Amino acid sequence: MDIPLNGEGDGRVGSARDNSTGGTVSKLQLDDSDSSSLMSLVSTLIPVLIYTAVCLLIFWALRRRSLRVYSPRTILRDFFSHEQSTPLPKGWLDWVRPFWAVPDTEILNRSSLDAFLFLRYLKVISMICLVGCCITWPTLMAIHANGSGGLSQLDRITIGNVQDPRIFFAHAIIAWIFFGRPLVLWLHWLTNVCRGFILFTIYRECIYYINLRHAYLLSPYYSKRLSSRTVMFSCVPPKYQDAARLRKLFGDTVKNVWIPRDTSDLERLVNERDETALRLEKAEIRLIKMANKRRNKQLKAAAAAEPETVPSPPSSGGSERSDDAEKGYPYHESTALPDVNGSVAAQWIGASERPYHRPLANFFRRVDTIKWTRNRIKALTHQINKLRRGFLKGEGRRLPAAFVEFSSQADAERAYQTLAHNRPLHMSPRYIGIHPDEVVWSSVRMRWLERILRGFMMRAIITAAIVFWSFPSAIVGAISNIQFLAKLFPFLAWIAELPGPVTGIISGLVPALALSFLMAIVPWLLRGCARLAGIPSLSLIELFVQHAYFAFQVVQVFLVTTLTSAASGALAQVLQNPLSAKDLLADNLPKSSNFYISYILIQCLAVGAASLLRAFDVFRHHVIAKGFDNPPISYSCIAPVVLGFATVGLYCIYLVYKYNLLYVSNSSIDTRGLVYPRALMHLLVGLYLATICLIGLFALRSAYAPMVIMIGFLVFTALVHISLREAVSPLLYNIPRALALEMEELDGGPAVDYPQDDFLTDADITASYPDFFDHIDEDESPAHQVNGSRGVEGAGGLMASVSDWSANALANKLQTTAETWGLAGPISYASHWISPDPSIEPNFVLRWLHPGIFDDFSTLRRMIPGDLPDPTQTYPPDYARRAYWPPEMASPAPIIWIPRDPAGVSKQEVEHCRKVVGCSDEGAELNDKCRIEVEIEKAPFWVPRVLY
């Protein structure tokens, strides 16, 4: 290592002289000519655009022909009539305009509240990013581009290119405007506080959500559902695990009570029966294929041996005709073949060639799979029926949970909002709106102490996972600055010799893809943790995953990746001069925003195109739903260019999911819209991070006045957050009883059947008062009374009079002054926007500014059609006996579905299997190549949907 003893080449020598540019810690950085930010962006953008274009072309070509994949909601019988979407035209381009014209409210009425709010969330954050572009691009991007930092390419339009601390006042002002600066408007004698854009958007969306959710849940289509009228009580003490006692506790409004029992043994038997039936089905299909392949070979060999043979005699022809007729034989006819004794398949398959396996319980001795599974299903069915009869008689341990169905939704809400037990954690927590199919019975079996311990353990595991997940995320962040690491570590020197596009792919596309795949694993792990923690329903599990996954996103995608990306770019300089760490971080932290452009391109364009293509569905005919929740607000003032990519990408995601929710996917889990307010609160976390980042950057640049301004905004955001939670939190999860009276006024009759026996009229209340005041003298003559004993007697009344007079005088003076200056017209016009008339028809701006007036309960209630079907008509006759029982108590044996074949093997196998389990070969057929062709509409396992 050569050390210049004479100071030659050392930039620090002479650094204190006039006009010197070397040696200061702010200049100890790599020459920015080495910046590859633009190459990284191009190297990411081009592959993503090519992949997106290919996906769109395939979708464009297959959309018309593969309706089962790209528009199943228009053809499948599993959907009710009001859930089926109107088919789009089948042309190449004529479907675009009709699709564009479909309003989002169609998804609310045809899918679910969650689906509608998910689309609305995508639109909201797209609008936030678009407004952010309009605010920050004309100001901050121009300031950054003209900065004195000497940066180039994309780094030039980040805050790192600004060196003068005085310029950061612009960032603080823009942050207040975009994030949440309150502007006090004095108009006429009205004072109105207009919040900043993002904070006001969160506030108005909370108001909109509350009114829409109440209107949706109180609609007859939803309020009559069993889940809306049923409350689940967990941790029920043994004394209250009795239906009669619960009826006495909650009164005559109780309709049904389900107290489940421990059915672990029954569940094991049912699972074994289902697995055995599946093994039987596979063995039957294998046998049918083997027999038909042998038969086809024999027919081909016979045809090759006698090519000139005359047509078969009538008996043979009759056999062929019988084979042809087998494809449509009725099931009530006999399957016995007159010319075959024993198994039909035995004509081509020997006994040793039949499907077999070696069960562990049989000491691995070989058994015939078909015969063994039939006998096993028969034995399991007998044991299952015996256990079920015992549970119906009251045998078995009762679980510490109860499902109580009430006569109406109002009664259920009253019980849900009432404290049921005097001891802590007894009959609590309680839940409403849980569908019978969503109950996680392994969690219901837990006692309160076990649930608490499991909850603590799972939260500790998730916290540890967030910490240890930082290591691969840190590697991803370091790879995004691979060109700096290549100069620092000799074993990576070969990377610097690669062509520019290859280096751009390594530093741009590869880290974004790696982080996307890394974060895609997390939700599956979190769902497993939620089950182990004792979360009692699938919808609550999704809420748990949403909350925990957001913590992963904040720590891994933002904090760890940002810090490691910045640190890897400044590591060499910090090692050479540790005192320069502060300035180097200030220079390199903004550059890490370039990584998020690549990440947004991957998440929005690539993932959106894959969701639209649905390649897995093309081959598997299986519907998969995905989510996206990553608003890039934190870099809005540091690198405003991120907002542009986010706007386009998020709107593309919105269009993709609008199509999928309208024509493809169905919401299988219903959270009753609770994911939306959590997502809105997550936006506030983005504001906190953005504010803290600006505070840190201002501190690193020694811009203390802007730093104080942003600290004030941080406090202001926290106060708004606290106030917002206190104001709207009770309304997010409960249905106010006052809405019953409002619905009665809107409908002209009682809409919610609250009991009237406990209510007293005003006349009854007046008549019930005793004559307390009959003895009071009613002399109305004036009398002087002493109101005080001190010299300030009457001062309070005088001050009130003076205050009222002063306020009126000031208001009159302001009005006169405004008229004198010609401001009466502008003030009147502004008053129209500040306090509009509720009776007028609002435009978009008025509706957006005043959600409490123009998006109130009565307005949003009209979005839900009144002609939706009655959900109770879909209930089976015995729902009261088995609705909230564990599924193993009533689940029927699975139906075996095998293909019909020309050899007639399936005909005999169906008859034999039906003695122990349901079996059918209708709708499936074996073709000449021994491949199965299926008509999914004729599948024997279709069951009618029940709107629980």
TrEMBL record:
Gene Ontology annotations for the cellular component aspect, listed alphabetically: plasma membrane
- According to the record, the residues making up region (Disordered) are 1-25, 298-336
**Record has Transit peptide as a keyword:** no
| Limits of the CSC1/OSCA1-like 7TM region domain | 455-629, 633-698
Q: Which residues form the 10TM putative phosphate transporter extracellular tail domain?
A: 848-940
* Keyword terms of this UniProt record: Membrane, Transmembrane, Transmembrane helix, Transport
Please list the GO terms describing molecular function: calcium-activated cation channel activity
Q: Where are the transmembrane segments?
A: 38-62, 124-147, 167-190, 456-482, 502-526, 547-575, 595-616, 637-659, 679-700, 707-724
Stretches with biased composition (Basic and acidic residues) = 320-330
Coiled coil ranges (UniProt) are: none
Segments of skewed composition (Low complexity): 301-319
Q: Where is the CSC1/OSCA1-like N-terminal transmembrane domain?
A: 41-185
Location relative to the cell: Membrane
Q: How does it sit in the membrane?
A: Multi-pass membrane protein
Q: Which InterPro entries match?
A: Csc1-like, CSC1/OSCA1-like_7TM, CSC1/OSCA1-like_cyt, CSC1/OSCA1-like_N, PHM7_ext
Where in the numbering of this chain does the CSC1/OSCA1-like cytosolic domain appear? 228-442
Q: Of which family is this protein a member?
A: Belongs to the CSC1 (TC 1.A.17) family.
Return the protein name: DUF221 domain-containing protein
